[in-house]
Amino acid sequence: MGEAEKSFPSAEPLVVVTRGSFVESVHRGHVVAVDGRGRVVARLGSADASAFMRSATKPFQALPLVSSGAADRFGLTEAELAVACGSHDATPAHTSAVLSMLTKAGLSASDLKCGAHEPYSKEAAEGLRSRGESPTALHNNCSGNHAGLLALASHLGADVGTYDRPENPAQRAVFRAVSQFSGLPEDGLEYATDGCGIPTFFLSLTAMANMFARLVAPADAGADGESAGGASHESARRVFGAYVARRIVGAMLKHPEMVEGDGELDTELMRAGGGRLVSKVGAEGIYAAGVLPCGRWPDGLGLAFKIEDGDKGDRARSPVAVELLRQLGVLGEEERRPLSGLARQTLRNHRGDEVGEVRTIFALNP
Fold first, then answer.
1. What is the pLDDT of residues 132-151, one digit of tens each?
2. What is the band of 313 on the pLDDT scale with cuts at 50, 70, 90?
């Protein structure tokens, strides 16, 4: 066993998969929740466990699109800002919004460097097949995110042909956003290449949770220039101020259907939350969310978790997210009712008989 493997912190059981009365499989992971002042309020496993943030970074990758003036210059709508923050299902509404963003910035789908894959929407995928068409980069679930980065590069006068490279000014703006919201030095950020070809950041779950806490409860500058939310927010306020964060959060909350799609975790959680939380999944079992200031969490709340095995069957993340928000007092019984299909998954055999279930088994530690 190499040194890297030895350094993996011990994960906690989060989800069991049962068959009959027996446990057949277990999904383990790490969970951390922090309040708006940066205090760890709940955890499971190691709060210092690190992982690639993957698509959970997208709201922060969209911040420079607003702060630079690019969004206003190109007249981007709130729905278009939401799709720039999302991992969409490639429905016609999604691809039309992405194409609109590109057109407004004087660009085209051929400028996208995210690669092509079949739409996540079954209806959209079947529609393509029935017409004898192949998927394009527009159908990539990251195309909205890439369209935003392209618009930013164009606005900055940068080379749009290298917008995916870490040295491009558009990406440098993203590095600054991640640095300032995580509290980590920009030149110390560790990263690799994401599935869609752009940099993805290797951060602790605590850093990810802090980023979302600061996104949903940004500090305002008082008359004396000090941060009303305390020192933990100061760096996030300097360049990417409260207005920028609120505009991104507002777009996601107003158009949750553009962040992922009907029936998907991000969209349905934001709908159930009624404007009180933003939700963002990431590949390899990553999840992060921000809870806006409320009675239980007056300073806001950020949370992040990682399913250790990568959750390739995509069966652990949804139950963990719903249960986590229940235990943290964010979603009540009535709000969870429409999420029942996400909170508990029934296993059926090929005849349709119920033979088991996927359910959570964890209790948060303060």
1. 999 999 999 999 999 999 99
2. confident
What residues have CB less than 8 Å from 286, skipping those under 6 apart? 51, 52, 53, 54, 55, 56, 208, 304, 305, 306, 307
Q: CA 178 to CA 181: how far, in whole Å?
A: 5
**Residue 355 tokens, joined:** 């033979």
Residue 210 Cα distances to 179, 190, 241, angstroms: 11, 17, 16
User: Amino acid letter at 176?
Assistant: R
The reported pTM is 0.93
Rounded to the nearest 10 degrees, how much is the dihedral formed by the CA atoms of 47, 196, 57, 237? 140
Tell me the helix, strand and coil percentages in the chain, rounded to 5. 45, 20, 35
Which residue has 């969870």 as its token pair? 336
Give residue for tokens 């527009």.
138
The full DSSP string for 225-274 is S-BTT-GGGHHHHHSS-HHHHHHHHHHHHH-HHHHS-TTSHHHHHHHHHT
Beta strands in the chain (DSSP E): 12-19, 22-35, 40-44, 50-52, 190-193, 199-204, 277-282, 286-291, 301-307, 345-348, 354-360
